[in-house]
Each structure stands twice: as structure tokens, then as C-alpha cells.
Amino acid sequence: MLIQALIDAKRAEIMAKLAKFKPPQPNGSQPTQQQQQQQQQQRPPPTSSRSSLVQKNRISSKKVTPIPAPPSAGTGGSLNLVELQRHIAEAKTRLAHAPPGTHVRPARTSDTKPPALPLDDSGQFDLKAMMDKIPRRETANTKALARAKQQKSIPAAAEKKPLKLYDEVPADYTDPQKNPYFDPNMDVKIAPKSRRARQLKFVQPGKYVDIANQERAKAQLEKMKQAIAESVKKAGMQTELDVSDKVIKREPPPPVEWWDAPFLANKSYEDVDQVNVDQLDTLVTMYVHHPVPIQPPGEGNTAIVRSLMLTKKERKKMRRQRRAEALKDKRDKIRLGLIEPDAPKVKISNLMKVLGEEQIQDPTKVEARVRKEMELRQKMHEKANEQRKLSPEERRAKIMAKMKEDQKSANEVAVFKIKHCSHPKLRFKIEKNAQQYELTGIVIVHPKCNIVIVEGGPKAIKLYKRLMLRRIDWNDLPAPKNLQADETQMDVDSPILKEGEDNTCYLVWSGPVKNKSFKKFTWRSFESEKMAREELGKWNVENYWDVALSTSDEDLQARQPVI
């Protein structure tokens, strides 16, 4: 009963507060106590759950102190309308003067609901207006479009005015007080000078006559050199007389070079300081003369693409995979009946396992048969290996094919200078290896200089250089057993080397050439330099002889390659 009394007291208090906010009735009368009792009678009675809750709490309700009844509507304890408006005004003032970090109550549902959708004139949704309200990510394209719109919106009066070019420097610009950044030491140019018209220049009289005289003098000089060379060749002293360009006297250089003459007024280098660069615009142009590019001779050769080199472990794996595939194919054919299965491979180790009862009956006969089969298998294996090998003719043909393929890639030349090479042992090694490597060239034997010229592919030349510079012992000269056709007994009996002298071989020059000069490898012996040089002149390689003869052994030894 106490809880019900508390509920009734609270209800009465709430009704009193609501009565203050209601507009006054026209007759000004307050609701009577009878009307309140009638409203209470119209409410439904409490449910069974509420009554049970009241019964459970009867014991605890005895300890609760009774709450005094709220004051009536007419007392001063309740809030009137004036005080409520004053509290609202104070709250608004506090919110207006509150700092930015002050907590503000959350917005109402009506404040957070989405705005109404825009409609067009026909009453349908305006999709274009909706798309304009959607925020877009700024990109380079959108910024450029916005910048273009902004520039279009700028009136014509706001556009930049073109720069004005002054013919003279303004006084304000050169005044140090008004322009503290002006440097009087610098040459100030206001407007660029226009290019002057190229002057009409006539050919000076005698210009082409001088050019023709120079050409005639040059031709006469070449003719004189050729006549001197012919006379020297007839006399047999070609290498002793120097007829190079350094010996022939030439005209002194001109006082002014032809490319500097247009820039000098008096045709003298003393007038260089008086040259005005601004007046040379007709001679100095913006055009640059580029020479015709020439392709180098080595770029035409295509690079040889080699197969991938595998390691030993990878090669074993590849072989194992190939053998497994072959064995699988063979088993499939046997399973299909295409080929007969192999006979069992009987050995001494598996004799009892394969031939059980047969071996017990006659072991001696079975063992002899098994040994015979083992020997037959060994012979077949060796025969198959021999058949897979190349014959000497096939091996030689394979090597020759490789040499010819090497010659197609490039042509190289190697020139060697030997102190003494007339010994039969040395001659045999030089000639035989040149023939085996498919090299062409010539050997010139002369008491003063012995040279070996060989031509061939890069690989063959590399092997031949290794032979000449490392493998051959040039001091191992035993007494010859048989004489060659062009040798005499005097050559054999006379000592080739002096006492304490070493026979040497040096590489004079090695490099690529465009075409070969020789068709085969030959051996020639000469007593005079004239005959040796004439022989090399037939093949247009006399320059090799000149270089080998003019270079000392000390210089050649200092520049020998490491092989």
C-alpha cells in the first residue's frame, strides 16, 4: 500500500506541473478533487505481476522512510513561467560565451535528417543538381578545367599587356638611386639587333687559278716521289734510302690559315684583338656541318648465340630424364606386343635367383652359359661405342668445317719476326701447323730479317700465336738428318747461331683485315732485300717487311702480348 501511495503522490506532482503550462480555462476554475478521483477510477487496475511484486517487497518497504507530499500548485516551491524563461535565457547566454572545446548537446533528429531531394519543373528528380552536390576528388584534369573557366571569366581589361621594347635605356633604369641593382659594368641591350643581310661577294680574280696550281704542285710531288721510288728499286737499295713524306721538303705554312682569313682585315694574326664579333653575323651561322657517318667494319658480324652451359649435376639430371622416357616408351611397346621383351640379364651374382632349379641340376653348364652371355653383352657394348665414334676422316672433316666457319667470321693477320728459322725442324713446325689450321701466308728467309706472315680466322690465329710464342723451343736445334730441296751442305755444316746467342721469335703486328692477300702458305728464301720486297709487293704487303726491318728486337720484346 505504501508503494501505491508513492506512485499516486508522484502522479499528482506531475499533473500539477502540467497544469501550469496549460492555458487558463475561460471560467478560471481549477480541476476539482472529484475530477481527479474520476480519472483515477478510469485507469485500469494494476496487473497480477505488479501485485506480486508489491507483495514481495512488503517486508523491505517497512524500512523505507515516507516521502513528504509535494507542495500544491499554489505554493512557492514550484517553478512559474517567468522563472522558466529566465533559466532559458541564462542557458543561452552561457552557450554563447562558452569556449570552443565546451561539450554541446547532440543535435535533434530533425536537425540530422537528410535534406529534401531537388525537383525540376516537371516534378521529377533533378539528377544534374544531385550530381553537382556530390563532392569530387580534385585531379589534374579538373584543376585545369577550373583554371580555364577562371581565365575565361577574367575580363579582357585584366589580361596581361604585351611587353614593350624600348630603343633606348630608360633613365630610371640606369639611375643607381632608383635602381640599386644596376651594374654599369654590364653591357645592356634593350632590343635584339636584326640580322644583317648577307653581302654580295664576287669571286676574287685568280682564286681558282691558285687552287689549280696547288693541285698541279701536289700531283708533281707525287710523280717525283714515284720516280725516286722506281730509281731506288732499280738500284736495289729501297730500304736503305728513305723516301717518306718527312724527307721531302714542303712549303712553309701560310701566314694566315684560310679558315681565319675572312675574320682578319689585314690577313694577319696581329689583328685578332681588333676583330668585332658583332659584325661577323654573316660568317658565323647557326648551321653545323656533320660528316657522313661511316659504319665500322666489325659491326656487320652477327654475334654467335651459344647454347646454355649446364653444370655437371644438371647434365646428369637431363640424362636421367631422357633414359626414363626411353624406358617408359619401350615398356609401353612391350605391353602392346609391338616388340619382344628382353631376355633376363643373368649374372653370376643373380644366378641362383633367376635360374633356381636349372642351376641346381647342372651348375657347371649354367655357369659357362652365363659367362658366355656376359662376354657377349660386353662385346656388343664396346661395338656400339666404336660405331658412335667418328672415323679419322670424319673427325678431320669436322675440324676442317670448324676452321672454315671460323674464317667466315673475320680475317686476321699475324706477322712474326724470327732471328733464325732455316733449320728443318723449325721449318716443319711452322709449315705443318699453318696447313693444319688452314692458314695462308708466306715465310721470307733473309740473312738480315726472317718474317712469317699468316692469315686466317680468329681462332686459328690465336692458336698459331700460342704455337709461335710459347710452344716452340727456338733454341732446340739438333743436327738435321735429311736436307730439304733448297738447302745445301754448307748451310748445315755452318753454325746457325753464334756462341752465347739465343734464337728468338717476336710478334710484330696482329689485327683484322678486310680481305686476304694470299691464296696458300709458301716458303721463300732471298739474298737481297730488293728481291724480298718485290715478292711481298706482288701481294701488296711490303709494309709488313718495312715495319719488321725498322723495329728493333728490344722494342718488340717490350710490347709482346701475354699468351
From TrEMBL:
The keyword DNA repair does not apply. It is found in: Nucleus. One of its GO terms (cellular component) is U4/U6 x U5 tri-snRNP complex. Keywords: mRNA processing, mRNA splicing, Nucleus, Ribonucleoprotein. Residues 27-52 have a biased composition (Low complexity). InterPro entries: Pre-mRNA_splic_Prp3_dom (IPR013881), Prp3 (IPR027104), Prp3_C (IPR010541). Residues 179-390 form the Pre-mRNA-splicing factor domain. Its main location: nucleus. Residues 17-78, 94-123 are annotated as: Disordered. GO terms for biological process: mRNA cis splicing, via spliceosome. The keyword Iron does not apply. It comes from the Eukaryota. It holds the Pfam family Prp3_C. Residues 414-548 form the Small nuclear ribonucleoprotein Prp3 C-terminal domain. This is U4/U6 small nuclear ribonucleoprotein Prp3.
